[in-house]
Amino acid sequence: xxxxxxxxxxVTIVVLAVLVFGPDKLPKVIQDVMRTVRKIRxxxxxxxxxxxxxxxxxxxxxxxxxxxxxxxxxxQLDNDELGLKEIRxxxxxxxxxxxxxxxxxxxxxxxxxxxxxxxxxxxxDMTKKPEDAGKxxxxxxxxxxx
Length: 146
Hints:
The protein is built from four helices and no strands. The chain is mainly α.
């Protein structure tokens, strides 16, 4: 619950509580706060139990933490029924980016050296316009459509 509170912040909160409530009222305030937290927990647990009972036996494994999108996705990625690990492992983003970078750099060097535009090694020169494409192939501009 207090994962992001450091020791200095905790000491500061305790000192402020002593200054605000005083040393004589502080134990009663702590008891009241603990009682309130306990009641809130009991209320939330009973609400969860009511929801589970209303959903029926199909949702007996339902966890409310699954409603958090990050938890849901993490759980689905761990559960490999859909084959997501295979897809994730088959897609290497660094390799794809390296190929794109190589293609861009080779295009820049070919354009600067005045290459004839032939496709070498299965690559297509994207700087050269197709021969059959003309200016008449463009669709008419429709100002009302935009």
